[in-house]
Design brief:
mainly alpha
Length: 192
């Protein structure tokens, strides 16, 4: 209902233009995230309202300012609510807009709380990775297929978009994350 009444546009425009006071931005983000969460029609409406522009807001903000006066966590919550779920068109557009790379960079620059949010979004994208490319899921382990099936039904065109096939996993493997994970595991093994 909120999205149908134009609420998405009312809150999205001032956030994208950095016109909200820092104290109000987290509240606006919370309202946006709640209206998008698990609502495929609202997610699609949010996509068309320009919510992927939040990626630019996150990227424009100085690294040191993220998480202090600005609401990096709430902005990421809005992006997560927009992207998570069965709306393949939203996921594809997020991937096309270099969303995987942005979330990876946020993970590398953030503390544990924001890192958890980043991993949650990346996990969702990885679970749908085969579906983003169409019916072929040769590289997807059987357990991943089961998780993706439990995660929710897919909504979107049933076309074969093989250019997307395993794009998320390829981008993740090409990022610094695997090296960071291996280093973390090695350090924990030395301590343990």
């Amino acid at each position: 209902l909120f999205g149908q009444m134009g609420g998405l546009n009312i809150l999205t425009k001032p956030i994208l233009a950095d016109q909200l006071p820092p104290a109000l931005e987290p509240l606006a983000c919370r309202v946006l995230a709640e209206s998008l969460r698990n609502e495929p029609r609202t997610q699609l409406r949010g996509l068309h309202s320009g919510l992927l522009g939040l990626m630019g807001v996150l990227a424009r903000r100085p690294e040191k300012a993220r998480g202090r006066h600005y609401s990096t966590g709430p902005l990421l919550s809005v992006l997560t609510a927009l992207v998570k779920g069965p709306q393949l068109e939203v996921k594809r557009r997020f991937v096309d807009a270099k969303g995987v790379e942005l979330v990876t960079q946020l993970y590398l620059e953030s503390g544990p709380s924001l890192q958890q949010k980043c991993l949650s979004l990346l996990e969702d994208l990885a679970l749908y990775d085969g579906a983003l490319g169409g019916p072929e899921t040769v590289l997807m382990r059987e357990s991943d297929k089961t998780l993706a099936a439990q995660h929710g039904g897919l909504e979107g065109p049933a076309t074969d978009n093989s250019a997307y096939l395993h794009t998320v996993k390829k981008r993740l493997l090409g990022s610094p994350l695997p090296k960071v994970f291996v280093q973390t595991l090695a350090e924990e093994e030395k301590l343990g």
